[in-house]
Each structure stands twice: as structure tokens, then as C-alpha cells.
Design brief:
By secondary structure, the chain is mainly α. About 65% of the residues lie in helices and about 0% in strands. α3 crosses α6 and α10 packs antiparallel against α11. The radius of gyration is 16 Å and the shape is globular.
Length: about 180
């Protein structure tokens, strides 16, 4: 699953790791290789986020779904390969299927996002923004559910007092994408 690489940048190392981990997986509605999604999330972060920790945030964006989607990948593995900061963000971004079932997905996601650290919230918003690109390709049921869930989350995030410029910019972009389908 993991290729041995020589001296490559940490971002390239994360990219190769993520691509290898998701090998053979495809996005449900677009049909694109799954790796396309984390790459796009990382591009959104690269474009909108200013931080002294930008490299680590981009790496976490590339890896944000890896633990959740790939049984062989663990937070401990991410920590060993990419450090504590990246592992902490990926851990925070990894959904808990037991809690989703218990609370319902919308409530679970809102609670999670209201309590996330700023960096992780930025990645989660970039993830949601990119997921909105599947709305036009998805079924009517998917579209209705995703737009409703997203609106619920956006409305709930207004209670967060520490939203940054990055957060508000991404929230506006998400709002623009989903309003077309409301």
C-alpha cells in the first residue's frame, strides 16, 4: 500500500500515501478516482488558508478521509509518518459511525464542527465545498438530503464565535453552491 520514496516533500509523501491508500476507489456520482477529492480539498485549503502551519493543514486535507475509508490506515500510522499535528487534525476529521447512528448524521456533524479546532474546521468546510460539486451529478434524493444537511450545519455554525475569514469565505461559497438547489 505504501511506496518507499526517497527524499520527497512531506506534501508529496502524503499525496502518494493517500493515492496508494485509496487505490481502486471511485467517487459515487462523478465516477472519478477517489484520490481526486482529497486533492481538490487540499487545493481549496492552499487557495484560502493563510497560516504558518499551512503545510500541515494541506497534508491533513489530503489525508482527511484516509482513516475513515481505509481499514489498514490508523491514526497511529498517520502520527508516525506525518507527526502529531497532522494526526490530531485527521483524528478530529474522522467520523464515528456509532455516534452518527446514535445522533443522526446532521446533528453529529454539526456538533462535531461546532467543537472542532479552527484548522480542522477549515478542512471540513473545504471538504463540504468540494462535495457540493457532486450535487449536479447525484440523484434527486442525494441532492435533497445533502442540501438539507448542509443548510442545517451552516445555520448551526453561525453560533460559533471564532469563525475566521477562511471559515466565512468557505461558508459563503458553500451557501452559493447549495442555494441553487433549494
Amino acid at each position: 500500500m505504501i511506496r518507499e520514496e526517497g527524499n520527497i516533500s512531506e506534501i508529496r509523501k502524503a499525496l502518494v500515501f493517500m493515492i496508494d491508500a485509496h487505490e481502486g476507489a471511485y467517487r459515487k456520482f462523478s465516477g472519478l478516482e477517489y484520490a481526486h477529492h482529497p486533492i481538490e480539498v487540499a487545493k481549496i485549503i492552499r487557495t484560502h488558508k493563510k497560516s504558518k502551519n499551512k503545510k500541515e493543514i494541506i497534508i491533513a486535507a489530503l489525508l482527511h478521509d484516509t482513516v475513515e475509508d481505509v481499514d489498514e490506515v490508523t491514526i497511529e500510522m498517520i502520527r508516525e509518518l506525518f507527526g502529531n499535528m497532522v494526526a490530531s487534525m485527521v483524528d478530529e476529521l474522522t467520523s464515528d459511525p456509532v455516534l452518527i447512528k446514535k445522533l443522526g448524521k446532521s446533528i453529529y456533524l454539526l456538533n462535531k464542527m461546532v467543537n472542532m479546532t479552527s484548522y480542522s474546521l477549515g478542512i471540513k468546510l473545504a471538504d463540504r465545498l468540494h462535495n457540493c460539486s457532486d450535487l449536479e451529478n447525484g440523484t434527486e434524493k442525494f441532492r435533497t438530503n445533502y442540501v438539507s444537511e448542509t443548510r442545517f450545519i451552516l445555520n448551526g455554525l453561525t453560533e460559533r464565535e471564532d469563525l475566521t475569514k477562511t471559515h466565512t469565505t468557505l461558508i459563503k461559497k458553500i451557501d452559493n453552491k447549495i442555494s441553487v438547489f433549494e
